[in-house]
Design a protein that fits this description.
The chain is 31% helix and 20% strand. By secondary structure, it is of the alpha+beta class. Among the domains are: 193 residues, Immunoglobulin-like, CATH 2.60.40.420; 57 residues, no CATH class. Strands 3-1-5-10 form a four-stranded mixed β-sheet. Strands 2-14-13-15 form a four-stranded mixed β-sheet. Strands 4-12-11 form a three-stranded mixed β-sheet, with no helix packed on it. Strand 18 and strand 19 form a beta hairpin.
Length: 413
C-alpha cells in the first residue's frame, strides 16, 4: 500500500513538472526577427572600414508551423523563396547593344557593339503572397531605408507548414538563410529574444573578418581587386592607389563573391577624391533606384491590368447584349401588374389577353403558403384568431379567401 502511494506521489510530481515545462505548453503563434545584413552600429574604430555583411543574421532559425518571421533590412537586400536562383543581370529583351560609350579621354570602350545587359526586374520587384509554403515563389523585392536617417524596411511572412525552407537574397549571390519549421506545438530551441541575441553575436563576429579583409594585398602585378570577401564583403578597390607608367595594361578583377562591381574611369567633376560620404550617397541612391524600379514595375502591371479589365468588360457587355435586348422588350410591353400579356396586336401593339388562370393560381398558392407560415409562427387559433394557450386548435382550418383578400373562410374539419 505504501509503495502504491509512493508511486502515485512520484507520478503526480512528474505530471506537475511536465505541465510547467515550456516544451509541453500550448504554443501560440510567435513572430521571430531575422536581419538581412548589418543592423546595429559597429564600434567607432570600424566605422571607416568600407565593409558590409551579406548574411542572414542568424543564418538559421527554428520556428513552429503557424509562426511568422520578420525580415529586416537596414542596408540593401531582399528575401526570396524560389525553386531556382534569380539572376541579377539578364540580356536585354530588346536585343540592344552598347553604342557610343567613351572614356574620359574620348576613347570608345571595347564593349561597344556587344549585347547589352540589364538589371533583371524580377530580382528587384516583390511577388507572391505573405505566406511561405512549399512550391509557392515569394519575394520581398529590394528592401532598404529610404534615406540615411530612415528606419530599416521590413517584410513579414507566415510559415503555415512544417519543413525546411532555404531563402536567398536576389541582390547578393550566395547570401542564403534557412528557416526550419517544426510541427505546430513543438518545443523550440530559442525564443525570439534569444534569436535576436544570436543575430547580434553573428554581426559582432564579422568585425574581425572585415578588419582582416581591409588589409588585402593583391600579389599579381598591375592588378586591382574590385571588392573582396563574401559573407563579409569590402566595398573598395585593393590597392586603393596604383601608380603605373603610361601605356600599362591594368587588370580589374572582382574578388567579391557576393557583390557586383563596376569601374568608373575619370575624375569627379568637382575634382576632389571619392570619399566614404560618396559611398553613403551611392547606398542611398541605390535604394532610391530600386524603389523607382519597383514602382515602374507596379505601374506597368497596373496598366496591363487596366487593359485586361477593359477587354473583359467589353466582352461581358457583349455577352449581356442579347439578354438586355429581351429585357428591354419585356419592360416596354409589361402591364401595370408587371406581367406580360398573352397576345399583342401585330400592328398596334395593344394587349389582347393576360393569362388570368395562371396568375390567379400562382397568387392563391403564394398567399396560402405565406399565411400558413405566419400562422404557425404566431400560434393563433385557427377558428377565432385568438392567441392559442396550449398548442394549435384541433378542428378547423383557416384558408385565405382568394376572391376577397384579407378575409378568412372557416371550414369544418
Amino acid at each position: 500500500m505504501k509503495c502504491f502511494a509512493l508511486a502515485c506521489a512520484v507520478l503526480a510530481a512528474l505530471a506537475v513538472t511536465g505541465a510547467a515545462s515550456p516544451a509541453r505548453q500550448a504554443h501560440s503563434a510567435t513572430t521571430f526577427t531575422v536581419y538581412l545584413g548589418e543592423f546595429a552600429q559597429p564600434p567607432a574604430s570600424l566605422r571607416k572600414v568600407p565593409g558590409t555583411i551579406n548574411q542572414f543574421l542568424p543564418g538559421k532559425v527554428t520556428i513552429a508551423a503557424g509562426d511568422s518571421v520578420t525580415f529586416s533590412s537596414a542596408s540593401f537586400h531582399s528575401v526570396t523563396y524560389n525553386p531556382k536562383p534569380i539572376p541579377l543581370l539578364m540580356p536585354d529583351p530588346a536585343k540592344g547593344t552598347y553604342a557610343g560609350l567613351s572614356d574620359a579621354a574620348g576613347t570608345p570602350f571595347y564593349f561597344n557593339g556587344r549585347p547589352k545587359l540589364i538589371y533583371n526586374p524580377q530580382a528587384f520587384g516583390p511577388f507572391g503572397p505573405k505566406t511561405i509554403s512549399p512550391g509557392t515563389p515569394v519575394s520581398s523585392g529590394a528592401m532598404g531605408p529610404q534615406g540615411p536617417k530612415d528606419p530599416p524596411q521590413t517584410a513579414t511572412y507566415a510559415f503555415p507548414k512544417a519543413g525546411v525552407y532555404t531563402l536567398f537574397c536576389t541582390l547578393h549571390p550566395g547570401m542564403k538563410g534557412t528557416v526550419v519549421v517544426k510541427p505546430a506545438g513543438s518545443a523550440l530551441p530559442k525564443t525570439p529574444d534569444q534569436v535576436k541575441a544570436q543575430a547580434l553575436a553573428a554581426q559582432t563576429a564579422a568585425y574581425p573578418k572585415a578588419i582582416a579583409l581591409n588589409k588585402t594585398k593583391v600579389a599579381a602585378p598591375n592588378t586591382v581587386a574590385m571588392g573582396v570577401g563574401g559573407g563579409v564583403a569590402m566595398l573598395a578597390y585593393y590597392p586603393k592607389v596604383l601608380k603605373v607608367k603610361a601605356g600599362t595594361t591594368v587588370t580589374f578583377v572582382n574578388k567579391s563573391s557576393s557583390e557586383v562591381h563596376n569601374i568608373v574611369l575619370g575624375p569627379k567633376k568637382s575634382g576632389t577624391l571619392y570619399t566614404l560620404d560618396d559611398l553613403d550617397f551611392l547606398h542611398t541612391f541605390a535604394n532610391q533606384v530600386s524603389v523607382a524600379i519597383v514602382n515602374a514595375l507596379s505601374y506597368r502591371k497596373i496598366e496591363e491590368l487596366n487593359v485586361g479589365l477593359e477587354h473583359k468588360v467589353a466582352r461581358r457587355t457583349q455577352d449581356l447584349d442579347p439578354a438586355r435586348t429581351l429585357l428591354l422588350w419585356c419592360a416596354a410591353r409589361a402591364e401595370g401588374w408587371s406581367g406580360l400579356p398573352e397576345q399583342l396586336h401585330p400592328y398596334r401593339g395593344e394587349t389582347h389577353s393576360a393569362c388570368p388562370s395562371l396568375i390567379t393560381h400562382a397568387w392563391l398558392i403564394t398567399t396560402v403558403v405565406e399565411y400558413s407560415e405566419r400562422l404557425r409562427h404566431l400560434k393563433r387559433c385557427d377558428r377565432c384568431g385568438a392567441l392559442a394557450t396550449t398548442g394549435r386548435a384541433k378542428r378547423g382550418l383557416a384558408l385565405p379567401d382568394p376572391l376577397t383578400p384579407g378575409l378568412v373562410a372557416h371550414t369544418e374539419g
